[in-house]
Every structure is written in C-alpha cells, then in structure tokens.
C-alpha cells in the first residue's frame, strides 16, 4: 500500500484596506495558472502562522504580522493531501507605503469584491466565501 504524505501549509491572507495580496501559480508547478495567496509548506516544528509570515516574505518581499487563523481546511488533491492553515495577516507598520500599492514579485493587490471571479484551487472555496462575507457583505 502506498501511503501519501500530508503537507501542512501556512498561508498568509494579507489584507490591507479591503484588498488582498494575490498571485498566480507558475506554469511549472502543481495547480498551475490558479490564483493563490502567499504560502507554502511548514518546516518541521514550524507553527503555521510563522510559516505564513516567512513564506510571504520569501515570495513577495513583504513583511507581515499574523493576526488570527481564519480557517483550517483538510483537502485531498489528486497530487497530495494538504492541511491548509489560512492566517489573516497585515503588513508590518514599518512597511514602505509603495509596497502597499505596487506589484510584489508577481503578487498584486486585489479588491475583496473581485475574489470570486478569480481561479483559486478548490480547497480555497470556503476561504473565499468567508472573505466575501466579512469584507464585501459587511
């Protein structure tokens, strides 16, 4: 029997003025072409919030501070089983103002109301619903 490895993933849901930092997965990766929040695999012993902040800095160059875990999702894709920890994060107070408006290594600031039109992986659906209810319908 071939048991699949489960990956713990820390994801930074970076919010600033009702906009979220969103990228598109590279053509050479799994789920290519799908939209994504900054994030990645947790290192052994690494807490998901610490992972989310680390991955955001590595992927975008933006320092963030995790505020709260929004959602935890277990999902089985064809290629892997994942435990997704979605952490609401905010840019650090000392972040230069231009980083809050410009593209960051391929990640862009997207208004909350545009999130449903984007092509996120299936496991992100409950998060998108949560964000729409919190930031658009509120």
From TrEMBL:
Record keyword Coiled coil present: no
Keywords attached to this entry: DNA damage, DNA repair, DNA replication, Hydrolase, Magnesium, Metal-binding, Mutator protein
Cofactor(s) required, per the database record: Mg(2+)
Entry GO MF terms: 8-oxo-7,8-dihydrodeoxyguanosine triphosphate pyrophosphatase activity; 8-oxo-7,8-dihydroguanosine triphosphate pyrophosphatase activity; 8-oxo-dGDP phosphatase activity; 8-oxo-GDP phosphatase activity; metal ion binding
Biological process terms in GO annotation: DNA repair; DNA replication
Start and end residues of each Nudix hydrolase domain: 3-135
Catalytic activity, EC: 3.6.1.55
Enzyme class: hydrolase
Alphabetical list of PROSITE patterns matching this protein: NUDIX
Coiled-coil blocks: none
Catalytic activity: 8-oxo-dGTP + H2O = 8-oxo-dGMP + diphosphate + H(+); 8-oxo-GTP + H2O = 8-oxo-GMP + diphosphate + H(+)
Superkingdom to which the source organism belongs: Bacteria
Pfam families named among the record's database cross-references: NUDIX_4 (PF14815)
Family: Belongs to the Nudix hydrolase family.
Protein name per UniProt: 8-oxo-dGTP diphosphatase
Gene field: mutT
């Amino acid at each position: 029997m071939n048991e699949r490895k489960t990956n713990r993933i820390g994801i930074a849901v970076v919010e600033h003025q009702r906009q979220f930092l969103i990228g598109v997965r590279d053509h050479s990766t799994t789920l290519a072409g799908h939209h994504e929040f900054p994030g990645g695999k947790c290192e052994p012993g690494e807490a998901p919030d610490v992972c989310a902040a680390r991955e955001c800095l590595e992927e975008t160059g933006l320092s963030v501070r995790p505020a709260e875990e929004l959602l935890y999702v277990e999902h089985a894709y064809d290629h892997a089983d994942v435990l997704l920890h979605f952490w609401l994060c905010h840019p650090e107070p000392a972040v230069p103002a231009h980083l809050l408006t410009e593209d960051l290594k391929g990640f862009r600031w997207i208004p909350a109301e545009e999130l449903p039109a984007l092509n996120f992986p299936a496991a992100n659906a409950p998060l998108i619903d949560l964000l729409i209810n919190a930031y658009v319908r509120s």
